[in-house]
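Quick illustration for those who missed Monday's session on complexes.
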Amino acid sequence: MSFRLSRSLKGSASGIARTFREYEKRSRAAGRGKREQTASDYREITNLYYDVATDFYEFGWGRSFHCAPRVPAESFKASLARHEHYLAHKLGMVVADLGCGIGGPLVEIARFSGAKIVGVNSNAYQLERARKYAEEAELAHLAEFMHCDFLDVDAPDGSFDAVYAIEATCCAADKISIYGEIFRLLKPGACFAAYEY
Ligand SMILES: C[S@@+](CC[C@H](N)C(=O)[O-])C[C@H]1O[C@@H](n2cnc3c(N)ncnc32)[C@H](O)[C@@H]1O
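Prediction with S-adenosylmethionine bound:
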């Protein structure tokens, strides 16, 4: 099992150790409030974290990187799908998935709902995998991906019939601006749905 993990890890062991040290250094400095944190500090720290964590998550957790409380006798996989289908029911036609990870929920929700979904993520490595998985699922026509910060999405006001975020807005450098940006992206009266842990 550990052999399979080490084969699939992004980069060499020394590269991973270097990224991890840099992550620790920066997050410790952030914790001590050594200097004022900017949105780009947050983005870099988050990206360092996900550069290392993505392969571990995928290995141990699967393609959906979110929690999904289970009902009695429900399998882990079924609980993930139930949470994704529940969101799909609440959504409209052109939808944004903010902080889409490697696209596990996006693929499931697009397949289930037929909605076109734009996955937004600041992590290039995860987006590469998300594109691959959408193509493998033959859902590339329903999946689009944008490499940018979800605090500053390159889309006109009112672009989306719905927006959702699954355990991602907690990473936002500014918890007020993220909801302002979501409001801007939504058509008037449209719905935002989110899970957070
Ligand atoms: C816990 S993962 C959840 C991924 C996905 N929603 C899922 O449930 O599988 C958090 C995600 O938020 C993304 N993220 C964090 N900060 C971001 C930012 N400022 N802009 C865009 N994406 C961000 C990370 O790259 C990661 O993909």
